[in-house]
Amino acid sequence: MDGSLQVNDSPPALGRIAITTVAQGFMTAFPDLQVYMDDLTFDPGSTTYHWTLTGIYAETGKHVRISGYEVWTMSADGLIAASLGHFDQADYQRQIQP
């Protein structure tokens, strides 16, 4: 299995190429992107990664700081098989606008 990534209500990105495309979109939007790990919690069957993203949005020059989390389902070999990402989309949109 190549894994999957779903961010908020977007369709899931399936496989390495699609996941790379999603990640590249954030890296393009924020050339100075920094992602900080705030917390990592473990529950039976899943791991939750809490993060904060900061950077300058390339299109508007606006500084953005958002926090969110991803719920990971791990594969038998210890890799992330599925990631369900969540962040406040309205707050993000407010911050990137000129």
Descriptive account of the structure:
- By secondary structure, the protein is of the alpha+beta class.
- The chain has a single domain, classed as Nuclear Transport Factor 2, Chain: A.
- Helices cover 22% and strands 48% of the residues.
- It has two helices and six strands, in the order ββαββββα.
- The protein has helices spanning 16-29, 89-96, and strands at residues 4-7, 13-14, 34-43, 46-56, 63-74, 80-87.
- The chain has a six-stranded mixed beta sheet with strand order 2-1-6-5-4-3.
- A hairpin with a 5-residue loop joins β1 (4-7) and β2 (13-14).
- The radius of gyration is 14 Å and the shape is globular.
Summarize the structure.
This protein has 98 residues and is an alpha+beta fold. The protein is built from 2 helices and 6 strands. It has a single domain (4-96), classed as Roll (Nuclear Transport Factor 2, Chain: A).
| Number of E strands | 6
CATH topology: Nuclear Transport Factor 2, Chain: A
> What is the rounded Rg?
14 Å
Give the end-to-end Cα distance, rounded to a whole number of Å: 41 Å
Average pLDDT confidence is 95
**Amount of helix:** 10-25%
What is the total domain count? 1
* Oligomer type: single chain
Number of helices: 2
Main attributes of the structure:
98 residues, alpha+beta, Nuclear Transport Factor 2, Chain: A, 6-stranded mixed sheet, 6 strands, 22% helix, 48% strand, globular
